[in-house]
Write a structure and sequence with these properties.
about 450 residues, mainly alpha, Growth Hormone, Chain: A
Length: about 450
């Protein structure tokens, strides 16, 4: 990966007039916000919510997944409108500032969560995740302004790489804090709130270069529609995009496949720490170290699987990844010791990095060049829908099973089986020919 620095010199991958320091500022937003998703959603607060805030009740996991589902449903409803508003009013940078302040404030408020504060925790999770995801969407809209069309992937990768580093660094700081706190004899109710404050502070400080260097190049449209009209037009545009995508048979089938397998992936991302603590007795420190190592494995998987994908082809590569994910779930379900679960977790890490790369590449391959941004919006919509279906299914199964996390994990494997079945109906050659032939 080409390195970036906050200097003023230009770079051949960047659009005319764009300087390195501006792209550095843009990429630093990924570095900053990855602290939230790594610490709050994946590693620390999810397990704390289930075990402490909800008291380990049979419905505790369902409460956690329901909060995430509400948040993702709100994102799906508001993303088209916010995106259109940002474009028409040239308000991307202002919206990013609002979402950053909102996510930082709500994350800091999670430090108040503990036994007996269920509704406070639920509301703050819904709001913080909404602010986080909305900020990510708006930040992504800057990419076409910053990079040349032939270098979008490369510049996007700079942000992706810095995001992994930011998440790992924030998690490492939290690991150090937890180890020190346990050495003092503190328990989760003392040190987990502190990790929320660490995460909020990390996000706020690391995002400063974004607002210092990133420019809003767009100009507000003088004839911008009123908000009410904007809402109607946004959803009409979304409906048109969905209808157009359905005309591309193999792309539409692939999007259905993505909903299936991403439901399984998003379940593992949101609940692996919960499973480790509830089913295998991991403590907070063990869970943090596990997630730290898995993030490194994910980065390695994303990097190494690219050449494999080029050699095997898009569909075969994705099928191989889904088999790895299915094996991951089965190993985790059967695990009764820490070593076996570590194997499952690192399989998941490798599969996570590779799946994101392979799925996104295949969507781009089957999309007409002039409609890639439009259809990538549906790719994001598919992942948000999967983020509701998968974790909610896990939460419901664990609740109906009286807190049986092993049964819920086994059920998660069905999403990968469904993904493989739907993928079998995708004809990549036919889909590519349809994309190249489209001139509408």
């Amino acid at each position: 990966m080409t390195s970036i620095s906050p200097g003023d010199s230009v770079h051949p991958a960047l659009a005319p007039g764009v300087r390195r320091r501006e792209v550095f500022g843009w990429a630093m937003f990924d570095f900053a916000n990855s602290s939230y998703t790594t610490v709050v959603i994946t590693a620390v607060f999810n397990a704390y919510f289930v075990a402490t805030v909800a008291g380990g009740a049979p419905w505790a996991t369902l409460a956690w997944t329901s909060a995430l589902a509400v948040s993702y449903a709100l994102i799906m409803l508001t993303a088209p409108v916010i995106g259109a508003f940002a474009d028409l009013r040239a308000a991307k940078k202002r919206l990013m500032l609002v979402t950053t302040i909102g996510c930082v404030a709500c994350t800091a408020a999670l430090a108040l969560a503990g036994p007996g504060t269920l509704w406070l925790a639920v509301v703050m999770i819904v709001l913080s995740n909404w602010f986080f995801s909305t900020g990510v969407n708006v930040n992504s809209a800057f990419l076409p302004e910053l990079a040349r069309s032939e270098a979008l992937g490369r510049v996007s990768g700079w942000g992706w790489g810095l995001g992994y580093i930011g998440g790992l660094l924030a998690l490492a700081v939290c690991v150090a804090w937890v180890i020190a706190a346990e050495g003092r004899g503190d328990g989760p109710t003392e040190y987990v709130p502190a990790t929320m404050l660490i995460t909020a502070g990390f996000f706020a400080l690391a995002a400063i270069p974004t607002f210092a260097f990133l420019r809003e190049r767009a100009e507000p449209q003088a004839d911008a529609a009123p908000v009410g009209t904007l809402v109607r037009e946004s959803f009409a545009r979304l409906a048109h995009t969905i209808r157009h995508a359905l005309a591309f048979r193999d792309l539409a089938t692939l999007l259905a496949c993505i909903v299936c397998y991403q439901a399984g992936i998003q379940t593992v991302v949101a609940l692996a720490a919960v499973y480790a603590q509830e089913a295998l007795g991991f403590d907070t420190r063990q869970t943090l170290v596990l997630v730290l190592v898995v993030n490194i494995t994910a980065a390695v998987g994303a990097f190494l699987f690219g050449p494999v994908q080029d050699r095997l082809g898009h569909r075969a590569s994705l099928a191989l990844i889904l088999v790895v994910w299915l094996a991951t779930v089965l190993v985790a379900w059967r695990a009764t010791d820490l070593v076996t679960f570590w194997v499952a977790a690192n399989l998941a890490g490798f599969g996570l990095g590779a799946a994101q790369s392979a799925g996104r590449a295949l969507v781009g391959y089957l999309s007409p060049e002039h409609r890639r941004a439009e259809f990538f919006g549906l790719w994001g919509l598919a992942i948000n829908l999967a983020s509701i279906i998968g974790p909610m299914t896990y939460g419901a199964v664990s609740w109906l099973g009286g807190g049986d996390h092993r049964l819920a994990m086994l059920t998660t494997g069905l999403f990968f089986i469904a993904g493989l079945a739907v993928l079998a109906a995708v004809n990549v050659r036919r889909g590519r020919e349809a994309a190249l032939a489209d001139r509408s």
